[in-house]
Amino acid sequence: MRSEKNKHSAQKNKHSASRIDAVKDKAVDIWDDFMDQPLKKKILIIIRDLCVLMVVFVILTLSITAIRVGRINKDSLYASIERSSILYDKDGVEVDTLHYGEDRTMASIDEMPEDLRNSFIAIEDKTFYKHHGFNWRRMFGAVLSKLLGRSAAISGTSTITQQLARNAYLSEIKSQRSIRRKLSEMYIAWRLERNLTKDEILEAYLNTIYLGYGNYGVSAAARTYFSKDVDQLTLEESAALAALPQAPDAYALISEDPESGEEIKHITYYSLDDISNKTDDAESSESESDGSDEGSDEGSEGTGLYANDVSKDRRDLVLDLMADQGYISSADADGAKVKVIDILAPSFERKDNAYTYFSDYVADVVMNDLMKKYDISAEEAERMLYTGGLRIYTTIDDEMQNAIYDEFRDDSNFPAAVDGSRVQASMVVTEVGTGKIVGFMGGRGGEGSKLFNRAVSPRQPGSSIKPLAVYGAALQKSYEYASKGKKFPFVDFGVDSQGAKYWGDYITAASNVIDEPMNIGGREWPQNYTRSYSGGNTLRTALQQSINTCAVKILLQVGDDYSIEMLEKYGLTTIETDKSKEVNDVNPAALALGAMTYGVTPLDMALAYGVYPNGGEINTAVCYTEVKDGNGKSMLKSKTSSKKVLDEGVAWIMTDLLKSVVSRGIAGNASISGVEVGGKTGTTNDSYDFWFDGFTPKYSAALWIGTARHRRRRLSGAG
């Protein structure tokens, strides 16, 4: 039977080989015929074939473009432009949107000042009202240069109509400089010119052109840069906007780089509901920008805003071209050549809702994932995210998110700083076993977007680090020794009277740990919160009462290096392990008491505490499950990955210990009737940070309360 199969296979291979030989012979015959031709005919054959290929390429490109674009008119044009991305909660209900500018309001051509229209025409397309979509001479010159290898890219040939075609219909390939894109551009531009008037084309262009600092369209840019409706723009302001399209991110009139220009002193905040009352709003905002409110507190935490005058030469060129083309006089042009700081009056929309911080976080994660999967730049990913009409299906639980939001707004839930100022807070809730983020709040009272997000910013953890770095590490290390048939090698470090005594063979929940004075570094250290000592304790009672001396004793037995290794397994991303640095985390103050170099983030702590009810496994964070494009095609999918941190039995013991911290220890206020809750509090010695990290069978969470970053305000009632 096998020999028959082998025979059949051999015959099949022989037949295939004969077919290949026949093809090779045919190709050789064609090549021989070509080589027998005179040189002149050879050249004509090559030219003919190239022309055929070019015609086929052009026909295919235009056909694909026509099918893809479909019908072109004013309504379809604007429909293709207004594509904010939508965020959905875990049940598929829309909860927020991502978009550039404020609301991408479309202004009519009649609302746009003549100087604004003329400034763009002067610098971008001086023959706009004469051509039929593109400049033939410049276009074919650029294509010829490309074909002849004189330039690596085709650029600098786009009319306003072509730019509109690219922005509205070719967003996914508009960064390419290729013949295919130019052909598609030309075809769409031709159809735009056939179906829209020049004023309609110019209106759509000015409503969609990217003008830096997250602004698409002159209406959004007028509000952001100048606190004005578009119809109030002056010649100077119009020229400033017209200078931006060449390099919108580099030329943006506002920068966060202090080297870019002069600091902007006053920032106006407005809502879309009262944009028509800018004068009153600007006056009221003076008090808002003097550092007396929470908004100014937010501003103090990031870099400042600066006037960016990099575009001044191009701005002056716009004015000169307007004069040369007869739109304004030379005197008007010279008079409008001012510094950008002289005309800037920035405004930002106030946005205060339950999803402000979470939406920013999801946007960052999706951007990074787009960059990684599609090998695109940060700028391309950002534009895809904010203008591509993506559908982002998040993991957030709307009911839980709004509950956290409501509680964060209630000042009675929070202590006050000694000076009476408002304290800050952040909270992250994750689902046990999946890593899905179901609740996320990065601060209190923040309005706007891209705020300082405390949910992913490190703070000192205090005693909330103890279960991870000390108690869990001790039980796990004992388990590892026991599984090898070895006893725990206790050591007398000469810093207390207990030394290596009374521990037993392993560190367990019932191990004896004496709360007594210790001498470390030539001084009595550490101190307990009570400033007293309680004598004999078990590991369980030491954890329940958060006794510092006991935590340090256990850590000494565990070892700094093992403790660090465990923190890394828990997924903490902010540990300083370089021992050569003057300040690092490889020491008892950091590992046993939480006085860490940089601190920890609420997101990392929420995931870490989920290890206990999850049988010793940690899950990576997931904030979305899927991202689809505007047509419903899947672009990204996300799911958690997990790894083992603790033995399952050790995790069970830690779960039980942390439940007792709530039921019989210092975290009693975290108890919930009918729900098994475990967790640990944390307070720094300076009382700038309060933590509670804990879990239920279904969720794990981290809550931080403290003073605003860089504000040294002690919290009232803190010891």
Counted by DSSP, the helix tally is 25
Q: What best-fitting shape do the alpha-carbon axes yield?
A: globular
Structural class determined from secondary elements:
alpha+beta
Q: Are there runs of 5+ residues with pLDDT below 50, and where?
A: 272-303, 710-719
Sheet-strand content, in percent, reads: 5-15%
Q: Which CATH C-level class of the domain at 210-350 is it?
A: Mainly Alpha
What's the CATH architecture of the domain at 210-350? Orthogonal Bundle
Q: Mean of the pLDDT scores?
A: 83
Major sheet size, sense and barrel closure: 5 strands, mixed
* CATH topology term of the domain at 210-350: Penicillin binding protein transpeptidase fold
Give the C-alpha Rg. Answer: 34 Å
| Percentage of residues assigned to helices | 40-55%
Strand segment tally: 20
Largest sheet: spatial strand order: 2-1-7-15-16
Distance between the termini: 89 Å
Descriptive report:
It is a single chain. Among the domains are: 2-69, no CATH class; 210-350, Orthogonal Bundle (Penicillin binding protein transpeptidase fold), CATH 1.10.3810. Residues 272-303 and 710-719 have low confidence and may be disordered. Strands 2-1-7-15-16 form a 5-stranded mixed sheet. By secondary structure, it is of the alpha+beta class.
